[in-house]
Each structure stands twice: as C-alpha cells, then as structure tokens.
C-alpha cells in the first residue's frame, strides 16, 4: 500500500461531523501517478483539486484533519493540499479514474487524474521532480506520444484565452523537450497565435 493510500485510509477512519458523510477527492500530481502504477518517489503532499463539492466550509475541516502540521501529517509525513480549479494546466475535460480500496472506504470516493493528463499538467511547472515523473511514465510505457500532444493541445486551448496565455511559450518549450529527449519523437508545431509561440 502506498503512503497516500495509508493517509487516505486514516482520513476516512477519522472523519469528523463537520464534513459531509461522503466526499469525492480528485487526486492529481505525483500521488495520482503512484496510485495508478508501481512508480514511487518521495513526496510530502497529496494534491486535491478544488471542486464545487469542496466548498470553503468543507475545505477548512478537511485541512484541519489532514493538512500540513496536523497529527496525520506527523504520522504519515504527508498531507493534503487543495489546489484551486484554475491553477493546474489541465485539458478542457480532464479524465478521472475511480481508485478502489479493499476494503472500501466509508466516506471518501477517491478519483485519480489520468496519467497522461498528470504529465501534461507537469509541463507548466517542469521542476526536476516533474521531469522525473514524466520520464518514469514514459519509460513504463504509460505515455502515448500522440495522445500526450492531443491532451496538451486541449490544455493550451484553455489557457490561450486568458491571462495565463503568456506562460504558453515556456510550456511549449517544455513539451518539445519531452518529445525530443524522453519520447524520442519529432517535436510538434502548435497552432497558436504568433504572440504566444515560443522563440
């Protein structure tokens, strides 16, 4: 069992009356990769995507239970962090998969972001850990190059229409680096306005 699974089980067992009887937690980031593969690496936070179900009235007691600095954090050396819905670089319709527990959890429904969509999201920050995550998924043949580009294009379409568009040139450079150095395929040419194309 992974560290994030242990944490989620403990959260479920310590559910508080301030929280709804049942709650869907959409997990993204490296912990989503670990829940869908044999991949393991050290991480301290499990990223949860904020949804209409995770209102401020739900988020506050959830983080009091499993946020940074809580007893559960000190027990598992991992905590939950809730990301705003416009923060991640995600396709227009992200793909989620139900993660099953045996025995089932009583209060939580855990959904994990599809591996390809996680890797697309990692193109935005692209720190060394993000690059390692993408390479591990490619090495284990979780990344189809054509689907990776298609999901990237969907995410870029979301960002090109708002204030985040100025970040697209850097993200496209990161995409091309992955294509060239990790997937070993021809770098793609993106259909983007001249003002947001990489140099």
Overview of the structural elements:
The chain folds into two domains: 3-115; 116-196. The chain has eight helices and five strands. The chain has helices spanning 3-13, 30-36, 56-66, 71-76, 115-125, 128-139, 145-159, 168-183; strands at 23-28, 45-49, 79-83, 96-99, 108-113. Strands 3-2-1-5-4 form a five-stranded mixed beta sheet. Strand 4 (96-99) and strand 5 (108-113) form a beta hairpin. Helix 5 (115-125) crosses helix 8 (168-183). The longest helix is centred in the last third of the chain and has 16 residues, at 168-183. The chain is globular, with a radius of gyration of 18 Å.
Total discrete domains = 2
Could you tell me the mean pLDDT? 91
Number of strands: 5
Stretches where pLDDT falls below 50 for ≥5 residues? none
Topology (SSEs and partners):
Layout: H1 3-13, E1 23-28, H2 30-36, E2 45-49, H3 56-66, H4 71-76, E3 79-83, E4 96-99, E5 108-113, H5 115-125, H6 128-139, H7 145-159, H8 168-183
Parallel strand pairs: 1-5, 2-3
Antiparallel strand pairs: 1-2, 4-5
Helix pairs in contact: 5-6, 5-7, 5-8, 7-8
List keywords for this structure.
199 residues, alpha/beta, 2 domains, five-stranded mixed sheet, 45% helix, globular
Concise overview:
By secondary structure, the chain is of the alpha/beta class. It has helices at residues 3-13, 30-36, 56-66, 71-76, 115-125, 128-139, 145-159, 168-183; strands at residues 23-28, 45-49, 79-83, 96-99, 108-113.
């Amino acid at each position: 069992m992974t560290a994030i699974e242990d944490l989620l089980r403990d959260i479920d067992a310590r559910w508080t009356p301030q929280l709804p009887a049942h709650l869907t937690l959409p997990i993204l980031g490296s912990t989503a990769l670990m829940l869908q593969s044999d991949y393991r690496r050290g991480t301290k936070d499990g990223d949860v995507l904020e949804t209409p179900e995770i209102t401020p009235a739900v988020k506050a007691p959830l983080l009091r239970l499993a946020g940074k600095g809580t007893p559960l954090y000190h027990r598992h050396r991992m905590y939950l962090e809730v990301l705003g819905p416009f923060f991640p670089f995600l396709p227009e319709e992200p793909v989620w998969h139900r993660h099953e527990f045996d025995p089932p959890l009583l209060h939580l429904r855990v959904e994990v972001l599809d591996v390809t969509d996680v890797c697309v999201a990692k193109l935005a920050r692209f720190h060394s850990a993000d690059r390692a995550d993408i390479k591990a998924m490619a090495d284990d043949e979780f990344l189809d190059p054509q689907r990776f580009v298609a999901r990237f294009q969907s995410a870029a379409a979301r960002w090109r229409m708002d204030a985040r568009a100025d970040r697209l040139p850097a993200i496209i450079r990161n995409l091309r680096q992955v294509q060239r150095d990790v997937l070993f395929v021809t770098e793609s040419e993106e259909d983007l306005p001249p003002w947001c194309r990489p140099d």
